[in-house]
Automatic annotation (TrEMBL):
Gene3D superfamilies attached to this UniProt entry: 3.40.50.2300
Keyword NADP in annotation: no
UniProt-recorded name of the protein: DNA-binding response regulator
Domain Response regulatory: 3-117
Pfam entry (one): GerE
Length: 215
C-alpha cells in the first residue's frame, strides 16, 4: 500500500486529489496539508511514502518544503504548470523525485504516484529531459567533472549516461545486453557513490557535470 500526503493550498484541489487516490486499491491518503510547513510536520508524524507537493503556497512554498525534506526517505512528487519550469528544475535539484502538470489526466497522476513510490524511473522523462536541457544550457557547464564521478567504473558511467537520457532499467538492460537486476545494481552503486537520492538527481548531476551535453 502506497501512503500519500497531499499538499496544496486550495482545499478543493486537495479533496479532489485525495478522493481520486483513495479510490485506488494500492494507494491510501494518510493526510493533507495547505502549506509547506504543515507538510513537513505531517511527513515527520505520518511517514508517507510519497508527498504530492504543490509549488506555490503561502508561508512555506513547495520548493522550500522539498529542501527541508531532503534527508527524509519520503519521495516528493511536485505539481506544477509549464510557466513554472525554472521552479521545477530547482525542485528536482532540491530532492524532488519527479513532477507532474496539474492539468494532467487522472491516469497520469496515478501512474506518477506509483512510479515515484517505486523509485524506478524519472517521471515524464521526455518533458523532464527537455526542461533540464533548457536550463542547463542557460547555465555555464563546469569545465571539469566533479571528483566524485571519477569513482565510477566505466560501466557505471555508461549506465549513468543512459539514465540521464531517460531510459528505464529494462531499456538500459536491452541496450547494454545485461540482466535488468544487474542494471539495478549499477544504478544503486551510482547513486551511492555520488551521494544522490534517486534517478532524478542523477539526471541533474549528469547534465550539470558536463557528462551529458544538452542537445
Amino acid at each position: 500500500m502506497i501512503r500519500v500526503l497531499v499538499v496544496d493550498d486550495q482545499e478543493m484541489v486537495r479533496e479532489g486529489f485525495s478522493a481520486l487516490l483513495d479510490a485506488q486499491e494500492d494507494i491510501t491518503v494518510v493526510g493533507a496539508a495547505g502549506d509547506g510547513a504543515a507538510a513537513v510536520r505531517q511527513v515527520h508524524g505520518l511517514r508517507p511514502d510519497v508527498v504530492l507537493m504543490d509549488v506555490r503556497m503561502p508561508e512555506v512554498d513547495g520548493l522550500t518544503a522539498t529542501r527541508m525534506l531532503a534527508d527524509d526517505p519520503v519521495k516528493v512528487l511536485v505539481l506544477t504548470t509549464f510557466d513554472l519550469d525554472d521552479y521545477v528544475y530547482e525542485a528536482l535539484r532540491a530532492g524532488a523525485s519527479g513532477f507532474l502538470l496539474k492539468h494532467a489526466p487522472a491516469s497520469e497522476l496515478l501512474a506518477a504516484v506509483r512510479v515515484v513510490a517505486r523509485g524506478e524511473a524519472l517521471l515524464a522523462p521526455s518533458v523532464t529531459k527537455r526542461l533540464i536541457e533548457d536550463f542547463v544550457r542557460a547555465r555555464p557547464a563546469r569545465a571539469v567533472r566533479p571528483a566524485a564521478l571519477s569513482a565510477l567504473t566505466d560501466r557505471e558511467t555508461e549506465v549513468l549516461v543512459l539514465v540521464a537520457r531517460g531510459l528505464s532499467n529494462a531499456e538500459i538492460a536491452a541496450h547494454l545486453f545485461l540482466a535488468e537486476q544487474t542494471v539495478k545494481t549499477h544504478v544503486s552503486r551510482v547513486l551511492m557513490k555520488l551521494g544522490l537520492r534517486d534517478r532524478a538527481q542523477a539526471v541533474i548531476a549528469a547534465y550539470e557535470s558536463g557528462l551529458i551535453v544538452p542537445g
